[in-house]
């Protein structure tokens, strides 16, 4: 089976990688290094595929970097209870209130659009970020499109460039993984050797 799609998709990947804002990535690393030094906590928020990425990233930040990290979506019982009883828009903000989010903490958002109340897209992210802003927590993110609400309030945000309008979601979610793996493997962040790099 021959198709131009495979080549086009992979060419897009190369283009996106070349256009990522290195300065924003480095700023995220600076914020996370300071977070670890001050023994603050990292809360990673994502919906859909980004929620899966959040759970994976929690493991990496905890195991590789020694940062206390959590993703609300890892607790399906609390997540569904809050969605059922209180409503979808407040699932994250109420979780963060119980966790007593403070200025010592960082909120990391993985999102294709970054949240948009006017379009009613990921209002849960917007409400959580409003709380983060109120308490003075740092906000960082890896987002697609124009970055949405996340980009407007973040201390550092990597916006995955749109190189093809029909592939915004797969590219955005794929590059969430690229960016967080870059961060956790960065010499300033990596505290523990990963398994396969230690096997000879």
Description of the structure:
By secondary structure, this protein is an alpha/beta fold. It has nine helices and five strands; from the N terminus they run ααβαβααβαβαβαα. It has a five-stranded parallel β-sheet with strand order 2-1-3-4-5, sandwiched between helices. Helix 3 (49-63) runs parallel beside helix 8 and helix 5 (91-98) runs parallel beside helix 6 (123-135). The longest helix is centred in the C-terminal third of the chain and has 18 residues, at 168-185. It is globular. 42% of the residues are buried.
Q: What is the name of the CATH superfamily?
A: Glucose-6-phosphate isomerase like protein, domain 1
Distance between the termini: 38 Å
Q: Please give the radius of gyration in angstroms.
A: 17 Å
Main sheet strand line-up: 2-1-3-4-5
Shape: globular
Quick check: average pLDDT? Answer: 94
Main β-sheet description: 5 strands, parallel
Briefly summarize what is shown.
53% of the residues lie in helices and 12% in strands. With 200 residues, the protein is α/β, with parallel strands linked by helices. It has a single domain (25-191), classed as Glucose-6-phosphate isomerase like protein, domain 1 (Rossmann fold, 3-Layer(aba) Sandwich).
